[in-house]
Prior knowledge:
With 417 residues, this protein is of the alpha+beta class. It contains 9 helices and 19 strands. One of its GO terms (molecular function) is metallocarboxypeptidase activity.
Amino acid sequence: MMKYLAPTLLIFLILSCKSPQQWTGQGPIEVVPTEDQLIENQPYQDFDLGDGLFLSNKMEGGRLNDARRINDTLVEVQILPENQPINSSPWYAFKVWSEEEKPMWIRLTYPTTGFHRYYPKINKRGLFYKKLDSAAFHPHPKLMEDGTERIEFAEAKVWVSPDTLWISAQDFAGTGYVDRWKDEILEHDFVESINIGSSKEGRPLEVLKIGNADDQKMLMAISLQHPPEIPGFLALKSFVETICEDSEMAEKFRSKYNLYVMPMMNPDGVARGHWRHNVGGVDTNRDWINFNQPEPKALANFMEEKVRETSGKFVFAADFHATWEDIFYTINEDLEGNHPGLIPKLIRRSSRKIPGYEPNIRPSEGMERGVTSSSYFFFVHGAEAMTYEVGDNTPRNRIRQKGEATARELMRMLNRR
Ligand SMILES: [Zn+2]
């Protein structure tokens, strides 16, 4: 794990490690301006590389900034961010096809400030991408000045043919997958969709209401503020599906509590294959205090209006993300919200259900409101809040198990009250 860490993280690790085996997470949250920043739009195009070989970024979620042929069996592509500064989470997604069927190496390169992060997934027809075979993946690590290693570029071997092959950084690309999932969830008669506004580019911002309670006690769950963090969405998906399940416990829960879910906080960024920001060029998870961007602003308005209308309360909120490894960022445990102790107990109890799993929990050190969603949920609403991070490479069945266990334990605890 050490080799992937940026220098600042390394310093952070040395200063604050509690146990040498456990990752202590990202460095302190940086406060950054959240007024609109310029972004560079990638031109959508087919790259004709000769001899009947084509690459293309013309797809929702596509990202491929340049492509050139090095030789008969090697193509080099360049992956650039929407703007800078940005944290290095180089999302990529593109298509490749060839008149002749043959093996081809694709070298993924990044700007000098970036480095390889996402293990390639490939897809022939279906919706889900599968991991590329490990024998077909060559990372090229580089020793940094501080002694850490980073993957400067990586090569992936694929079979190109007249049948289009999709290559992507995660399990799916574009907004369609989340939309189809929303439609499935909406088939339950206790789920409805609420339009709460539009993104900067006019995509609908939608919240699902789950439950038939009276809104005196509400919960909030969100994901995909950061477009590549699809494992975080997969965790939210399992969490929500478990709350919707056909069981006595879930039914009782839904009669006492309404869960509001916004699975796609940054639809423009997802559609445009951004590394992290929305089309305002801003990390929306730094905008939950100034609300310069329409996406966090719409959700905050929705929540505040709910509370005004109903005099109810948000008791719990989770923002699902993905990072290097599984970690829970929680609120300082000396601070009490609407349900003191709920989150630490929930994480400990749900983790016990998963054999061999030891949760990595990092409460914030600060006692004051910050710029992130979970800080907003806690300090404005008193909702017991956490940032639920799963690893980029956490096995998908583990993500599912954890999402299910979290939902079941939460229902068990809240049903008692
Ligand atoms: Zn994130």
